[in-house]
Amino acid sequence: MTRDASVVDERRSSAGGTPRGLDVAAFGAVGLSAATTVLIGLLGPSAMVPGLPGPSWQPPYSLDAHPGAHLVIAMGAVAIVLGGLGLAAALRSRWGPDPRWLLAAGCAVAGLLAFLPPSGSADHLNYAAYGRLVTLGQDPYAITPATLPGDPVTGAVEEWAGVTSVYGPVATAVQALASLVGGDSVRLTVFAMAVVNAAAFIGTALLLHRFARGDADLQRRAALLWAANPLMIYHLAAGMHVDTLAIACMVAALTVRGAASGLLLGVGIGVKLNAGLVALGPAWELRRSPGRLAVVAGTATATVVAIYAVAGPHVLDQVSAASRKVSLATPWQLVKVGLQSLFGPGAYSAWIQIGSLLLMACLAWLLLRARGALGALRAPGAPGALSAGTAPAVAAAMVVAWLFAAPYALPWYDGLAFALLAMASWPALEAFMVARVVVLSLGYLPAREALRPDDLLWTKTLLREAVVPWTLLALTVALAWWAARAGRRARRRPASAVPRP
Q1: Residue 223's closest CA among 421, 444, 71, 24?
Q2: What is the pLDDT averaged over residues 111-132?
Q3: Whole-angstrom Cα distance, residue 293 to residue 284?
């Protein structure tokens, strides 16, 4: 697929020149945020960094300084706030360094973080446990880590020990391979997964850089939105979530054509099911080319069916259960509380599911009108021709709509949107995503609930359960209002201004 050259930021910068003070401050904040994230991992086990049982000579490594909870939680907040402010300012800057330097710096940090213990969540302990279950001949989609509490790996799980895997078979296969490498050592198992995660993060960065080749400004934005993005470094490079692997597959799928694109889409869905929203981009772009659409859709479908069939009958059990959950930090938590107060404890699930689907459809439609993708697809052109950049733009609109509408969302889910926006070149929407991930991230400090000091309980009861949901609700309303206005302006443009295939 080709990038969209029709939507260009009016503040596009040129390489070189003399940076202003605000430019230096913006890029300095980005660097300081990433450095703070590195330092959190380097200090070792804390309220932000789960301990990793295993021989100390094995990677990943740390100083084992055991910093206090107040210190590392404050460091996490600094990394998030500085990262958000610096990123927002850097994206608007009229000056920028050579994109190759940004790319190299981001990739270097991601590579370094693979050798430090993961921070920001304890999900990697679950990954290690699910892989361990596979190597022990158990089904992680039917058996929970709590079933084997005496095992050195499954017994190390801190959260969700009584929950079966919600991840796709490809993610489980990677976890099982890491378990084969790590054996009884949680430390070595996590390191093996960290190497794969770093490779996926760096691979995505290189793909995005190549995708924007020939335009240094777009390459700079791509690097800021992914490789040098301090928020993505915090959540995906340091946090080591399986989302990184799914994103790598989806970005790769949008850079190739035909059966290869379909295969990569299918593998990405095999990592995490909700990544399948990206497939709507190529499907929409190829809608007027039935033959090419059939190849991509057929290959993707066959790949997904084969992957999930091999995983057994329980592979979607936890996915089905998770689809009915509502996370504390989303606006739907407010709706859930209201419905429960009116109709009782179990009265909210169906209403929220229906409401979220309707909201997602509404936001997606508004975003596509704002982008002009609808008009571009209606524009005349040769049969089977591709609209420039339609696939990444449509995929970005769908994913952003899902993120803002989903009842259950965590900050690292936003990584998929940032990667797609790096391909779609959509500056106005980038600002909404930066604000969203900063707000949501602050609601999930610290990484380890059990180690939160009593005097910081307000970060959960006030920040996560009240301030963040109301703030995200306001941000969702603002997004819809902006998209509606932008859509009306797009409809008033002369026909010559509509992007042509």
Answers
A1: 421
A2: 97
A3: 9
| Residue with tokens 């659409």, as numbered in its chain | 293
**In contact, 326 and 348? CB cutoff 8 Å:** yes
Check if the beta carbon of residue 359 is closer than 8 Å to that of residue 405: yes
- Residue pair 269/305 in contact (Cβ under 8 Å)? The answer is no
Phi and psi at residue 160, to the nearest 5°:
60, 25
Helix (H, G, I), strand (E, B), or coil: what is residue 231?
A: helix
Query: What is the per-residue pLDDT across 419-453, written as a single tens digit (0 to 9) for each?
Result: 999 998 888 899 999 999 999 999 999 989 889 99
Q: Are 212 and 12 in contact (CB under 8 A)?
A: no
Chain segment 163-181, per-residue pLDDT in tens: 999 999 999 999 999 999 9
The values of phi and psi at residue 215, to 5°, are: -140, 100
154-158 long-range contacts, Cβ below 8 Å, gap at least 24?
154/129, 156/52, 156/53, 156/125, 156/128, 156/129, 156/186, 157/122, 157/125, 157/126, 157/129, 158/50, 158/122, 158/125, 158/448, 158/450
Question: Kindly report the CA angle at 407 between 412 and 125, in degrees rounded to 5?
Answer: 40
Sign (positive/negative) of CA torsion 23, 26, 27, 28?
positive
pLDDT in tens, 255-311: 999 999 999 999 999 999 999 999 999 999 998 899 999 999 999 999 999 999 999
Give the pLDDT score at 234: 98
Report yes or no on whether pTM surpasses 0.85: yes
